[in-house]
Design brief:
- The chain is built from two helices and eleven strands.
- It is mainly β.
- The chain has one domain: Clam (outer membrane lipoprotein receptor (LolB), chain A), CATH 2.50.20.
- It has an eleven-stranded antiparallel β-sheet.
- The longest helix has 16 residues.
- The two termini are 26 Å apart.
């Protein structure tokens, strides 16, 4: 069975989850500012996703993201999962076990991505930045509660585009999400973010 861990990946190429030893360089500051501007311009997103957990389990489905504060991950059967973020809460439903768990969005790394105004300083600390050919990765934690976990955002570069993210939770478990067929902009039926139902029962457009 696919792990119940919420949105996390094994990624050997990521930098260690440690505080930065020195202030960001001017190049780092420029890239951080560029990513901040990009994220604040991203209002809605729909994509196919593939999720891989640290223990090697794979699932997929359709993701809807609407900033601020809303997300839906509709998993493709036989995965019995549904994840919704709305009203400041991240809700995870496992229909096979008939269990639902709720976590304050402010206590999850994904809350950084879904913030009304993404600010990559102050309440958020950039702990790592890595550049690969055609790619840039940024690892973030909440400054006051780094133990809640980290979020690594992985972008294609030139032009900048969000392609993947990795969440490491408070127990150091990882989940990696890769986005495909990304559609930006447009409006969504707000019921997407209001209804918890078994994934097999509904696959909204």
């Amino acid at each position: 069975m696919i792990s119940r861990r919420i949105l996390l990946l094994s990624a050997a190429e990521l930098l260690p989850f440690t505080a930065r030893a020195e202030p960001p360089s001017p190049r780092d500051q420029a890239d951080i500012a560029r990513i901040e501007t990009y994220l604040n311009s991203l209002k809605t997103l729909k994509a196919h996703f593939i999720q891989a957990t640290g223990d090697g389990q794979i699932s997929e489905g359709t993701a809807w993201l609407q900033r601020p504060g809303k997300m839906r991950f509709q998993y493709t059967p036989p995965a019995p999962f549904l994840l919704i973020a709305a009203h400041g809460v991240l809700t995870f439903n496992d229909s096979a076990l008939q269990q639902t768990s709720n976590i304050p969005l402010s206590r999850t790394p994904l809350g950084i991505l879904l913030a009304d105004n993404v600010t990559l300083s102050g309440a958020v600390t950039v702990t790592a930045i890595q550049r690969l050919p055609g790619q840039i990765q940024l690892t973030l934690v909440r400054t006051e509660s780094p133990g809640d976990g980290s979020l690594t955002l992985i972008f294609a570069d030139n032009p900048l585009a969000l392609k993947q993210w990795t969440v490491i939770d408070a127990q150091r478990r990882e989940t990696h999400v890769t986005l495909y067929n990304v559609q930006l902009g447009g409006s969504f039926d707000q019921q997407l973010f209001e209804q918890i139902s078994p994934p097999a029962a509904r696959n909204p457009d």
